[in-house]
Amino acid sequence: MKDGNMIGSREEYIAQAISRCNRESYKAAVCDMLGWLYQGPDGRSKKITEQSPHSVRYEIRSRQHVEVYGFKTIHTNY
């Protein structure tokens, strides 16, 4: 399943995010942002759900963000 916001399956997207995370020069983590808020294309805050695009749900966040906000990590490079 592919559209403008999804790249293949969830597992493929997570694997790509992990690869990008490992290439970063700073300490980072791939995080599952389920339950957090993001700004939609209409400018309104929306809750991240199971149906949210992979690019919104799985993000690379710095170690500092993970420690401060307590994001759920899938993979870390620190």
Explained architecture:
The protein is α+β, with helices and mostly antiparallel strands and 78 residues long. The protein is 32% helix and 27% strand. It has three helices and five strands. It has helices spanning 10-23, 54-57, 63-69; strands spanning 28-32, 37-39, 45-47, 58-62, 72-76. It has a three-stranded antiparallel β-sheet. The chain has a two-stranded antiparallel sheet with strand order 2-3. The longest helix is centred in the N-terminal third of the chain and has 14 residues, at 10-23. The protein is globular and about 35 Å long. 12% of the residues are buried. The mean pLDDT is 89.
Low-confidence stretches: none
Q: Total strand count, please? A: 5
Radius of gyration: 13 Å
How is the main sheet built? 3 strands, antiparallel
Distance between the termini: 32 Å
Which sequence of SSEs, written as H and E, runs from N to C?
HEEEHEHE
Helix content percent band: 25-40%
Shape: globular
Q: Based on helices, strands and strand pairing, what is the structural class?
A: alpha+beta
Q: Regarding quaternary structure, how should these chains be classified?
A: single chain
Mean pLDDT: 89
Query: Helix tally?
Result: 3
- Our estimate of the beta-strand percent is 25-35%
Strand arrangement within the widest β-sheet reads 4-1-5
